[in-house]
Automatic annotation (TrEMBL), chain A:
It is a peripheral membrane protein. It comes from Liquorilactobacillus uvarum DSM 19971. One of its GO terms (cellular component) is plasma membrane. Keywords: Amino-acid transport, ATP-binding, Cell membrane, Membrane, Nucleotide-binding, Transport. Pfam families: ABC_tran (PF00005). The keyword Kinase does not apply. It is found in: Cell membrane. This is Arginine transport ATP-binding protein ArtM. PANTHER family: AMINO ACID IMPORT ATP-BINDING PROTEIN, GLUTAMATE_ASPARTATE IMPORT ATP-BINDING PROTEIN GLTL.
UniProtKB/TrEMBL annotation, chain B:
Residues 20-209 form the ABC transmembrane type-1 domain. GO terms for biological process: amino acid transport. Its main location: membrane. Pfam families: BPD_transp_1 (PF00528). The chain crosses the membrane at residues 20-44, 65-84, 191-212. One of its GO terms (molecular function) is transmembrane transporter activity. It is found in: Cell membrane. Keywords: Amino-acid transport, Cell membrane, Membrane, Transmembrane, Transmembrane helix, Transport. InterPro entries: AA_ABC_transptr_permease_3TM, ArtM/GltK/GlnP/TcyL/YhdX-like, MetI-like, MetI-like_sf. It comes from the Bacteria. It is a multi-pass membrane protein. This is ABC-type amino acid transport system, pemease component. NCBIfam families: HEQRo_perm_3TM.
Amino acid sequence: MIRIEHLQKKFGNSEVLKDINFKVEKNDVVVIIGPSGSGKSTLLRCVAKLENATSGDIFFNDTKMTEEDHKLCELKGKLGMVFQHFNLFPNLTVLQNVTLAPILVKKIDKKEAGKDAKYLLDLVGLKEKADAYPHSLSGGQKQRVAIARSLAMHPQLMLFDEPTSALDPEMVGEVLQVMKKLANEGMTMIIVTHEMGFARQVSDRVLFMDGGHIVEENTPDELFDHPVHQRTQDFLAKVLV
Amino acid sequence: MTSFNFQLVIDYLPYFFKGIIYTIGFSIASIVLGTVLGLLIALGKMLPNKLLAAPFKGYVGLFRGTPLLVQILVINFGVVPLILGKSNSIVAGILALSLNSSAYIAEIFRSGIQAVSEGQGEAAATLGLTPNQTMLHIILPQAVKIILPPLGNEFISLIKDSSLASVISAPEVTYWAQAMNAQYYRVWEPYLTSGLIYLILTLSISSILHSVERRLSVND
């Protein structure tokens, strides 16, 4: 579904991503872990086309996303993204946040979109908040609305950029629960996270990144229990206390 | 102050009322035109293509960098006769005030649009919204809320600046105050009365904007 070949990303003179290669197949759940500044988020943002790659190619269902004139809005939400800071639209209610893109982009009629949105809000456990504004929600609730908002476009792939990093510890569980539900339903996902326990439970493969490289890639059990590289061992020793 | 003659003011009230109609007319027309034009110029200034953005930058520089009084004179005696064949103080007044305020309002809009967090545009783009849809449905509604206080300042300035149209004999409040001064050789009555009229107008618009601000901040 996603194929990345020799991806390189530079900001000015600093090379943030160096020769990244990997593939994600349909129904895969891939988790990317690694220290801050290792390029995890930049990689995700390149896949989402929020950053333009300096060189190399990203294919999404054989569409070359790295083509200069390829615009993000042409994907029409097929590639959903959930952000660390939620980025809900504060001027719209929860329901409007979820229905906006289906109505504007997919031209679905308002009633239909509303029905679908209610179903999705129910899925993330927030049906009763449909008419609330984002400011009245907790962080965990905001993130669950953001997930519902992405799902409303029925994406083929969901990208999660540290979805629980900005949350109070108490709120982390409710968001991970929703993501687990999605994984079990066969959603294809790439997740950047620091939640190692969650990574292990939910993923088919784990990528460990450091210094702009993918250092190690393996099944979660292998990577967490028998890390091959010294750098991976050091990192895991520090985070898995 | 040699005893303020209220009777004189009352006698002259019909003219002041005429002036108020023109002052309000000038202000409303220029606020509406200046805001619409200001938004378009702000969007033009933010075009990614530097060459396309240049004329909009030049426009803002020109109208902010020259005195409004000079603009009024040039437009009344130069531009309007060129277009209409004769000078027309009302058209010239509205045109000058709108063009001038639009330069300031453009900068206010730009600051508001840029103050909306980048994440908003990113979220909208990943959902498949086009840049235009994002601007219209996500960025502008949030920007308007941010810029309401500075926009209010600009509207108040505009109401007061409409008094400059008196130099081209547009029959607004200051024009009639000067006429009253000339007719009765009185200073306090005409000018204090005109000052009070402007004060009432500016206080009214600021209270209107205040209530709009309160209504919009409900979702904060």
